[in-house]
Amino acid sequence: MHKGFDFYKYKVVGSTNDVCFEKIKNKKSKVVIFAEEQTAGRGRNNKKWQSPKGNISYSFGFKNKQTLKALSLQAGLCVRDCLKEIYSVDVKLKWPNDLIFKSKKIGGILIESKTFGMQKHTVIGVGINLKIKSEESHWGDINKKQEYKKIESFIILLTNRLINIADGKFNVGWTNDWLNNCVHMNKDVQIENTKEKLKFIGLGENGELIGLKNGVHHKIFESSIKVEGLY
Predict the structure, then answer these.
(1) What pTM, to 2 d.p., does this model score?
(2) What is the mean pLDDT of residues 117-139?
(3) Do residues 80 and 181 touch, judged by C-beta distance below 8 A?
(4) Which domains does the chain have, with CATH numbers?
């Protein structure tokens, strides 16, 4: 029994997020799911996320009454900081939920929630490629072995950081930390759903992208972006 959360470890699951939703239904405490392998992992907009052995498949679930703002970005920053501390790698962040290392995508964050009356069940899914055989040109990894003792240290550190987010105690200056580790700060980006090109200049208070085009500021709340030079 870990302090502050219930922990479940699996060899193989379909989706750690799905298992987390099932476990949290009848729990008062927060829930953490870890699997060595997923067979039905997914990313944002139901994109398939390959989860072979050699990666981390993790989900953190909690109950809350209010929607938490910028959850994906805050969680991404936590993951980035924990990877730095445990694995000594300098992973960068791409809006809104990608983890980048050596110009490749090595992981991502998936936030999902379900509402039951006045209560929300929220799950933060995290996928990280430690060392995998790349099947797609945009995949990368951090070139670290899947050693469970190290993974457990990472899980405990990350979970404690995510508990702070869930309890509304996250660092008030997180946006500056996120921007300091952004891989596309002050670079031209393309908004995927509109194909519009903007210069990325910052984040809004709700985690929205702030871009500059022809001297005019634009706010993008929901989309993905393409960045020249990245995968």
Answers:
(1) 0.93
(2) 89
(3) yes
(4) 5-177 (3.30.930.10), 184-227 (2.30.30.100)
